[in-house]
Amino acid sequence: MAFEGLTVYLSRNLVALEQFDELHGTLKSNGADLCLDADPSSNSPKQYHVISSLEHEKFAFLSAQGCNLIGPECIFRCAKEHRSFPRQGYTCCLAMDGVKVLTSGFEKEEKIKIEKLVTAMCGELRTKTSLDIDFVLAKDVLAAKYKWALTVLRKPIVTISWLEQCFHEHRLVSHELYRIPPCTGLTICVSGILPDERQQIERHVVQYGGTYSGNLTKKCTHLICNISF
Predict the structure, then answer these.
(1) CA 184 → CA 35, 40, 132, distances in Å?
(2) Model confidence pLDDT, tens digit, residues 157-183
(3) CA–CA separation, 27 vs 8, rounded Å?
């Protein structure tokens, strides 16, 4: 059986009440040694604690104790596929199982969040470019690896919102609504342009994710001007 040899701690305080009975039945029918309580001292490789989300108030405490944490969606998927649990700190689901993700342009705290979400869905976070990457998360079009992803890799380049939505729904959602708009991160100013055309440019800049600036400042990344020779 899929969970034979594993000890699983299932506490009513750590999961949604409406999922408890189904979790209990799934774990028992797949051979898990079930304990109906939480024991933070139980943190061996074959001991798991079921928890509803990394946002649960007890998550940080159990994680700090070195406990293996597993989400309901992961349990149901593993049971369906007759496989054991992933061996890592926390797995909420298998939505990104086998999926390789590259990031670019994010600050340290954002990188930590991205890594937490990707690994929680059993995905693989890459730090270097390679042609087997499936998705690229970019802060904006100025990110160092954006041009490479666009011209060489030619795989979806998406915002962090896509990753958050995947995590929320426990599945790979369509990336089409989360593609990086072509002006994201750009601040664009115009000079020597007629008012009507200037307004049209402003609409396009905002529509495609950029910021329009009425004045040329140090924050501007691009200047559109009408030059006569």
Answers:
(1) 50, 45, 25
(2) 999 999 999 999 999 999 999 999 999
(3) 8
